[in-house]
Description:
mainly alpha
Amino acid sequence: MSDTNIPVRATEVADPREGCREVIPTLARIGDKWTVMVVGSLSNGPMRYNQIARAIEGISQRMLTLTLKGLEQDGLVSRTMYPTIPPRVDYELTDLGRSLIVPLRALRSWAVEHRPAMLAAREEFAKREQQTGLRQTRFTDPK
């Protein structure tokens, strides 16, 4: 063998799917619709619960509460309670949560840019489905 040909052994992985399985809970958290909306709302700074609820159209109290608890549990959001009457609670992105803003903005940009193409593809798909449905109906109609 020459000096430029060096044998390299591939590192063996017990189960190549294990890497995918390990990130599924993380992807489920950050890919959730409400997580994206909450992180987006909090990207402008700390907010109170009702401010977040007003900023996110369509989110129920239960879903907002569950989302905030999950984000807090995963270290993406911090919750600060102030001993006032009534109690005041602020939610804020942690450093880890703020690191999610850049990829989410990139994803949003992609979605805005490609939405027209996706809508056109949906229309084409619906036309094909309708034509296929019509053809199947013709074949199954009794004569």
